[in-house]
From TrEMBL:
Pfam families: DUF402. InterPro entries: DUF402, FomD-like_sf, Ntdp-like. Keywords: Hydrolase. The keyword Phosphoprotein does not apply. It comes from the Bacteria. Residues 53-159 form the DUF402 domain. This is DUF402 domain-containing protein.
Length: 166
C-alpha cells in the first residue's frame, strides 16, 4: 500500500539527477489518489530562468503532477496573475513518495507545451544522449524515450491537459 499524502499537507519535493540533489523546495499537497500526487508550489529559485520560449520567474505558480507508475512528471505553469504559460514535462523515473517528501529522478529529457497548444518542443535530447543512461541502464533509457514520445503525442493531440484532470 503506498504512502498517501493528505490534501493541504506540506511536503518537500526533491529533484535528483545522477544521485545528486538538483533542487529541493516546499509544496502543498492538492491530492493523492495512490497513483498520482498533485502539489502546488511557487517557482523555487530567486532568479529568472529564461529558456527563450518561456521564462520562469519569481511569482510563477506551478501545479505539479507526479505518478508512481509513469516515467514523467507534468508541471502546469502560471504567472503571478494566474495566466497560463504552459506545461513543462520532465521525463523521470516514477516518483518515490514518503510521508515527508516526493523524490523525482530527472532523466534529462523534457517537453514544453505552450498555453495555446501550438508550440510543442522536445528538449535536452542531446543532454540525454551525452548522459550515458543507455549504457548504464538500457531499460530505463528505453522507458525514458517512450515517455517522451507519449508526452509529445498527448501534447500534439490536445490530450495533455485532460491527463491532469482529477
Amino acid at each position: 500500500m503506498p504512502t498517501l499524502l493528505s490534501p493541504g499537507a506540506r511536503t518537500v519535493v526533491r529533484l535528483v539527477k545522477a544521485d545528486r540533489e538538483k533542487v529541493r523546495y516546499g509544496a502543498r499537497v492538492l491530492r493523492d489518489d495512490g497513483v498520482r500526487v498533485t502539489v502546488a508550489a511557487p517557482w523555487s529559485l530567486p532568479s529568472v530562468r529564461d529558456f527563450g520560449f518561456v521564462r520562469f520567474e519569481p511569482g510563477d505558480e506551478f501545479t505539479e503532477h507526479y505518478w508512481r507508475d509513469r516515467w514523467y512528471a507534468v508541471k502546469e505553469v502560471r504567472d503571478a496573475r494566474g495566466a497560463l504559460k504552459g506545461w513543462y514535462c520532465d521525463v523521470t523515473r516514477p516518483v518515490v513518495v514518503t510521508a515527508g517528501e516526493l523524490v523525482s529522478e530527472d532523466l534529462d529529457l523534457d517537453l514544453w507545451l505552450s498555453a495555446d497548444g501550438h508550440e510543442v518542443r522536445r528538449l535536452d535530447e542531446d543532454e540525454f544522449a551525452a548522459g550515458g543512461l543507455a549504457g548504464r541502464d538500457p531499460r530505463a533509457a528505453d522507458a525514458a524515450r517512450r515517455a517522451l514520445d507519449e508526452l509529445e503525442a498527448l501534447a500534439r493531440a490536445g490530450g495533455l491537459p485532460g491527463l491532469l484532470t482529477p
